[in-house]
Design a protein that fits this description.
Elements: H1 2-22, E1 28-32, E2 38-41, E3 47-50, E4 56-59, E5 65-69, E6 79-81, E7 87-92, E8 97-102, E9 107-112, E10 121-126, E11 131-136, E12 141-146, E13 151-157, H2 158-161, E14 169-175, E15 178-183, E16 187-191, E17 197-201, E18 210-212, E19 215-220, E20 223-228, E21 234-238, E22 247-250, E23 254-258, E24 262-267
Antiparallel strand pairs: 1-24, 2-3, 3-4, 4-5, 6-7, 7-8, 8-9, 10-11, 11-12, 12-13, 14-15, 15-16, 16-17, 18-19, 19-20, 20-21, 22-23, 23-24
């Protein structure tokens, strides 16, 4: 009996140690910014954020500010995307404007959404081959807009593709030649590059979602979720006890966690995501 109790105590102790290690987050660098609106990270670890007026700031992976850009017309940025590395993309639904900047955040293309082609752009994201994907709320359609030729090259009625959906799209991203739509309380829908539905994922990000290899990473119910969008295998990881972030980005070396006033920069090898 005593031996059994001893073995049981050892197993409980090992379980507690294992849980403690899972929850262990190493040291971090921190960016303090009182009014964070949107955040993105490129593949080299440069960090980009916007404030509610649409000003754009660039930080190093050490958390030092490098550059900033202020648009002529101030307006909240609806979409900020830096994962393409070469270009940074911003879109403002309020202003109905898009902007493409180089990696030094110098504008290389900027314009208003053409009203004769797209009546009310609700969400937009950059794609391959000079394409901007736009959801036009006026006719509930998904459009591929070629910003170099200033024409819509493809048009799909999204209300027919996603039958019975509210179409309350909170995020839209192109990745690996696929289009990902996050629809509030419905999940993430994956479409091909022609706008045809492939499948729906049971994933409900609280805010943003980001990609690393074949996984979608996001925060849901105060946990980090890493979901393989091909196999649909899912893993969850704890957040740091002292920081209830609502957004996450992951690359080969770093894990970014952020809320509305702080960005924490962790070395991935010192986090629960070190094997990802």
């Amino acid at each position: 009996m005593k031996l059994r109790l001893l073995i049981l105590s050892l197993l409980l102790l090992l379980g507690q140690n294992s849980f403690s290690q899972e929850k262990d987050w190493g040291d971090y660098k921190e960016i303090n910014f009182p009014r964070i609106d949107k955040v993105s990270m490129d593949n080299q670890g440069f960090i980009f954020l916007t404030d509610p007026e649409g000003n754009l700031y660039q930080y190093s992976k050490s958390g030092n500010v490098i550059n900033n850009f202020s648009p002529h017309r101030q307006g909240r940025v609806s979409q900020l995307e830096a994962a393409w590395t070469i270009n940074i993309f911003t879109f403002s639904s309020d202003l109905q404007e898009y902007r493409i900047l180089d990696r030094f955040i110098n504008p290389v293309a900027e314009n208003r959404i053409p009203l004769n082609l797209i009546i009310l752009a609700k969400v937009a994201t950059i794609g391959n081959n000079n394409i901007i994907w736009v959801f036009d709320e006026a006719d509930l359609s998904l459009k591929q807009f070629d910003y170099m030729r200033n024409e819509v090259v493809q048009h799909q009625p999204l209300n027919l593709i996603l039958d019975r959906s509210s179409l309350e799209i909170t995020d839209i991203r192109e990745y690996q030649n696929l289009l990902f739509l996050n629809i509030k309380n419905e999940g993430i829908f994956i479409l091909d590059n022609q706008g045809n539905l492939i499948k729906k994922l049971k994933a409900y990000p609280a805010k943003n979602f980001g990609f690393w290899k074949n996984t979608i990473n996001f925060i849901e119910k105060e946990e980090i979720t890493s979901l393989d969008f091909q196999s649909e295998k899912q893993e969850t990881f704890p957040l740091p006890d002292d920081f209830k972030a609502f957004g996450i980005f992951v690359n080969q070396q770093l894990v970014l966690l952020f809320d509305s006033s702080k960005i924490r920069i962790y070395q991935k090898q010192n986090t629960p995501l070190k094997g990802k």
